[in-house]
From TrEMBL:
InterPro entries hit by this protein: Znf_SWIM, ZSWIM4-8_C
Signal sequence residues: none
Gene name of the encoded protein: ZSWIM6
Species, as recorded: Gallus gallus
Membrane-spanning ranges: none
Protein name: Zinc finger SWIM-type containing 6
């Protein structure tokens, strides 16, 4: 559709004078206005023409249309002009003019279709003056105004079209593009060729490169449609030339060359040379081409479509990989194909072929196949739409056999390509696909385990075997009066039901594909008739299935097994059968009767079918009393959503099941429920509950069945205001998730050859399980919310949750939801719902007690909050049963501590008795936890037992008992500091000495975190007295080998007298301890020894950059040596030894001599 500034393609037809040669066309001319004459298009019957075009307002008095115009219009629509010329020897010029006049398109719909995407309006060209309100406000209006069709209308309304001339089947003119801020005014030369009411080629000097016609082509086309009386019309140029004599012809040619000599002179000379040459190719044929003479018999009659631009645009969109809105653009192209099909435009299939070729050439297909990765979800959906469109095209009820054969050949070619995407979207899955082949397909009876993978084109290939010649089918789609009251065959496949209404028994997705094809090809009335027959068939099957199940019910329930009646679910199916039926019926609700007769020629092409015996009955009688297309649409949606079906293989197929279900429910939610629709809901809910294996809500379902949670939530909310009992019954039945149940019935698959591949436990391949569980949780939450204030209902819902939900995170969410609903600010707390919340919280605690869960701490804190809202008895209960709910650490550090806090006491308004009861339970819990896990719970236990002497002593004894075995020095130091803080220094000292026995500080651990604890322990011992200090120093010497730490302790012990600052600040008299006597002598010797050992250790691996640091270390060592009475001598000997041993380290020893001599 792109227009370029080059010359139009050469004309295919050769025109010549009458009698020129044996091969020339007949066609003597009668009359004529002389050379160069022209008339306005409308001519004498302009009023009639205007009326035919709808230019005159309705109700105005109009002259009857002439027989000439009626005949000329029909000929112009159907016959190529060459056939007209060959059929009639003499064609009067007025007749030629009317045929040429009526050959230009008369409808703006096609012009719009070829110059804009459908932006949401059903018919953008239908509004008066082309003005259509944008659906999405100012932004959408701005986008729509940028479309070529809208811009073309603006140019036309702005008077920008000029010099319009129609010569035969060729229209030309100029369109002035007004000056913009950054661009000057430009004049575009536009040329349009047309044939049989279709534009066959366009050119424009604007150089536009796009799929669609540019705005200038639109403006010129609409000018011709809206203002035909202002367009000067001439017969084809060859007709004018026939009327010239030799002198006139020479003058004509010379003037033409003079006016355009720079452009045409070389061509004119070349043509002259060839014509003068007897043997030239140009002289071997009769006549000469005329671009204005219309189509030849062999020309295909189709609208102009720029194939190259279609391919380029699709290639560009695919290369963008879903970015920059490319996915949306491709979907718009698919919508354009559907729009063309609906207009019965042959370019629909042509355009889809071009799109498919680019999709198949996408280099990512080979890359994904090579890497074993799957394509993106949006890209996968584009392929689905591609396959669905081909299904529609091959099911065109009026396509020719040779055309279908051509499509089949092309589809098989694409299908055989190695990278052709599979229908289930799962390249890596080698499991057999459980999808049924179409009944009339070549592989209908083939074992699915041996069937090759189905590609996105497989269904279209199989659909090529389908036909529309069945007389019963033709009667259904062609008549609203097709009934048979005398038909009494009540078998499963009877042609009529008990009302005498027609039924259509066919594989449901296939039958619905027929409906989609009829709708797509512009036969809405026929599609509706077939849709009604299919829905009535489904409803009859429902009733039959219910009757069968009632006979077998006792046996099936006794065995606890069921069968899946349909391995191929209708919701999520590649052909979307339920969505097709729903859309067809809903369209009938929205449109008036007349619009359904927009294309009334269906039976003209179909041919007469063999008549069956039937009685006439109005169309609405095919529905029960009180029913409508709307009720039928809702009912078929409920039937499809409630169908028991197997969960398909593969991530994409499973996601599609969820997505389609949600899309269908979303459409249902747009419908306001009245009493009639509520009856439909009741009827279907009861059936689904009672229909056994035919329903996803039956009493016993297969563990592989697609869960009903999302659907049941919609049913529940819809039924609740009208029939609460049925609503709860339905929702509670749907709560189950058997794939997670270890004892779920395995059942049979109703087709023995599938059992081996399906019965094994497959649920790890339920890729959407997390989404399914979240939907199950949503259903439960919806019931909890609705049941607020109803004790019986809440208990029932709680039991269902506890039985069916297996995810702790989802149960926790439900507990939180129930808590929020129960404690809404605008009402008093609902104590029953609070208890439900608490019960769910307790279940979460039990489920996560022995498993890792990153939200566990949050869960425990929340449970205490919930129990607090319930009351003191709930808090007391969780503390008494703590061992089934919490770890010892959680019980002491979170539960008991929070319960005993002042905020809890104030919140619950507790009296002294209640406070003491809670405190007693907390102390009991604390002691039990300390016994079970003293390392983590001892300190909390001591804190909780402070106010009870016996409990505190018990807790302290637990600590002492555990100190020698299981507790670390850090835990003991922490408890010791707590004891000192609480005024128990001797107990703190005891624990500190026990901690020291577990400690070991090596020579290089001078930054160890326990150093502060060691210094504190020594300070505590020093403050208690000489005996305590004397007792702890041997422990320090044994545990600490770090010289700097020991020297720090030594200095601190020499600053004050032991016991100088006793308990409560009382000062003790006494002298400083001597370094020559125990216990400080032992500490001094240990410190000097530590310095000596550390020095040798450091010198072993010392590097020059650490020399200065080492010298400082020796300086500190000298300070400690000098604390001994013979320290100076010891240090000198130490330095001399270093010089001797490490004399190889000359530079270092030189530094030692400089500092220490």
């Amino acid at each position: 559709m792109a227009e370029r500034g080059q010359l139009p393609p050469p004309a295919k037809r050769l025109c010549c004078r009458p009698g020129y040669g044996s091969g020339c066309r007949p066609g003597g001319r009668v009359g004529g206005a002389g050379p160069g004459s022209g008339t306005l298009c409308a001519g004498p019957s302009s009023a009639a023409a205007a009326a035919a075009l709808g230019l005159l307002p309705l109700g105005k008095t109009q002259s009857p249309e002439s027989l000439l115009d009626i005949a000329a219009r029909r000929v112009a629509e159907k016959w190529p002009f060459q056939r007209v010329e060959e059929r009639f020897e003499r064609i009067p010029e007025p007749v030629q003019r009317r045929i040429v006049y009526w050959s230009f398109p008369r409808s703006e719909r096609e012009i719009c279709m070829y110059s804009s995407f459908n932006t949401g309006n059903e018919d953008p060209a239908a509004a008066p003056g082309g003005a259509v309100a944008a659906p999405g406000g100012a932004a959408d209006a701005a986008d729509e105004n940028r479309l070529p069709f809208r811009r073309g209308i603006a140019l036309l309304d702005g008077g920008c079209v000029d010099n319009v001339l129609q010569v035969g089947f060729h229209l030309s003119g100029t369109v002035t593009e007004p000056a913009m801020q950054s661009e000057p005014e430009t004049v575009c030369n536009v040329a349009i060729s047309f044939d049989r009411c279709k534009i066959t080629s366009v050119t424009c000097s604007c150089g536009n490169k796009d799929i669609f016609y540019c705005a200038h082509v639109v403006a010129l086309s609409l000018y011709r449609i809206r203002k035909p009386d202002q367009v000067k019309l001439h017969l084809p140029i060859s007709e004018t030339l026939f009327q010239m004599n030799r002198d006139q012809l020479q003058k004509f040619v010379q003037y033409l060359i003079t006016v355009h000599h720079t452009e045409v002179l070389p061509t004119a000379q070349k043509l002259a040379d060839e014509i003068l040459s007897q043997n030239s190719e140009i002289n071997q044929v009769h006549g000469a081409p005329d671009p204005t003479a219309g189509a030849s018999i062999d020309d295909e009659n189709c609208w102009h479509l720029d194939e190259e631009q279609v391919q380029e645009q699709v290639k560009l969109f695919l290369s963008q990989g879903g970015y920059h809105g490319s996915g949306k653009q491709l979907n718009l192209l698919f919508a354009k194909v559907r729009e063309m099909l609906k207009m019965r435009d042959s370019n629909g299939a042509r355009m889809l072929t071009l799109i498919t070729e680019q999709f198949m050439a996408d280099p990512r297909l080979a890359l994904w196949r090579q890497q074993g990765t799957t394509m993106t979800d949006k890209y996968r959906q584009l392929w689905d739409e591609l396959g669905a469109l081909w299904m529609c095209i091959v099911l065109n009820p009026h396509c020719k056999l040779e055309q279908k054969a051509s499509w089949l050949k092309q589809l098989k070619k694409w299908n055989s390509v190695d990278v052709c995407p599979w229908e289930d979207g799962n390249h890596g899955n080698e499991l057999p696909n459980l999808t049924n082949a179409l009944p009339q397909g070549a592989n209908a009876n083939q074992d699915s385990s041996n069937r090759p993978h189905r590609t996105v084109f497989t269904r279209a290939i199989e659909a090529c075997d389908l036909h529309w010649q069945d007389s019963h089918l033709q009667h259904i789609i062609s008549s609203d009066l097709y009934t048979n009251y005398c038909y009494h065959d009540d078998s499963e496949n009877s042609l009529f039901d008990s009302h005498g209404w027609p039924l259509w028994h066919e594989h449901v997705p296939t039958a619905c594909a027929r409906v989609d094809a009829l709708r797509s090809h512009g036969y809405p009335r026929e599609a509706l008739r077939l849709a009604i027959a299919i829905v009535n068939t489904l409803r009859r099957q429902q009733q039959k299935q219910l009757e069968v199940f009632r006979v077998q019910k006792k046996e099936l329930l006794h065995k606890g097994v069921t069968s899946i009646t349909n391995l191929e679910g209708w919701v999520g199916h590649p052909l979307d059968p339920i969505g097709t039926l729903f859309s067809s019926l809903m369209e009938a609700c929205r449109v008036d009767d007349e619009s359904f007769h927009g294309f009334s020629d269906f039976m003209e092409n179909m041919g007469q079918c063999k008549s069956l015996e039937y009685q006439h009955l109005p169309a609405h009688k095919f529905l029960e009393e009180g029913e409508s297309y709307l009720t039928l649409a809702v009912e078929v949606a409920l039937i499809g959503l409630g169908q028991q079906r197997i969960m398909p293989d593969g991530l994409y197929a499973q996601e599609k099941v969820c997505r389609n279900e949600e899309q269908l429910i979303s459409k249902l939610q747009e419908i306001d429920l009245d009493d009639t629709l509520v009856k439909i809901f009741r009827k279907q809910a009861v059936f689904l509950l009672e229909a056994g294996p035919y329903s996803g809500l039956g009493e016993v379902i297969h563990r592989e069945s697609v869960p009903m949670h999302t659907f049941a939530k919609y049913l529940f909310t819809s039924l609740l205001p009208h029939d609460a009992e049925l609503a709860y019954k339905t929702a509670l039945r749907a709560m189950r998730l058997l794939v997670l149940e270890s004892t779920a019935p395995s059942g049979d698959m109703s087709r023995p050859h599938h059992i081996a591949s399906v019965v094994p436990n497959r649920y790890p391949r339920w890729f959407t399980l997390s989404h399914i569980e979240s939907q199950q949780c949503e259903l439960a939450s919806t019931m909890l919310t609705a049941a607020k204030g109803d004790v019986r209902r809440l208990e029932t819902v709680l039991e269902s949750i506890q039985k069916n939900i297996h995810s702790s995170s989802h149960i926790f969410k439900l507990a939180q939801d129930a808590f929020k609903i129960a404690t809404l600010m605008d009402s008093l707390p609902d104590i029953t719902l609070l208890k439900v919340s608490l019960e769910l919280g307790l279940q979460v605690m039990r489920m996560t007690l022995s498993t890792l869960n990153w939200r566990r701490r949050e869960m425990v804190r929340w449970l205490v909050t919930c129990a607090t809202e319930v009351g003191v008895y709930a808090l007391d209960s969780i503390m008494q049963n703590w061992f089934t709910l919490f770890t010892p650490t959680e019980a002491t550090s979170i539960v008991a501590t929070t319960v005993m806090s002042n905020s809890t006491i104030v919140r619950l308004h507790l009296d002294c008795h209640q406070q003491e009861k809670l405190a007693s339970s907390a102390r009991t819990l604390a002691l039990q936890c300390a016994m079970k896990d003293p390392q983590n719970c001892a300190l909390s236990a001591l804190t909780l037992c402070e106010k009870d002497h016996i409990a505190f002593e018990t807790a302290y004894q637990i600590v002492l008992d555990a100190a020698t075995t299981g507790m670390s020095y850090s835990q003991l130091f922490t408890i010791a500091r707590y004891m000192e803080h609480r005024g128990y220094p001797m107990r703190a000292y005891k624990l500190a000495t026990l901690a020291m026995t577990h400690l070991n500080l090596s020579y290089n651990q001078d930054t160890h975190p326990a150093i502060n604890d060691v210094l504190w322990a020594c300070a505590l011992s020093h403050s208690l007295g000489k005996n305590e200090l004397a007792a702890i120093i041997p422990l320090v010497v044994k545990s600490v080998k770090c010289a700097t730490v020991l020297s720090d302790i030594l200095r601190r012990c020499t600053l004050t007298t032991p016991g100088m600052v006793g308990l409560h600040g009382r000062r003790n008299s006494g002298k400083l301890m001597s370094l020559d006597k125990a216990p400080l002598r032992q500490l001094l010797d240990a410190t000097i020894g530590a310095y000596i050992n550390t020095t040798h250790s450091r010198l072993t691996h010392i590097s020059p950059r650490h020399y200065s640091e080492f010298i400082e270390f020796l300086s500190k060592a000298r300070e400690t040596f000098l604390m001994a009475h013979d320290g100076h001598i010891q240090f000198t000997q130490f330095i001399d030894n270093l010089k001797q041993i490490y004399k190889g380290k000359k530079k270092l020893m030189m530094l030692v001599r400089e500092r220490f001599g």
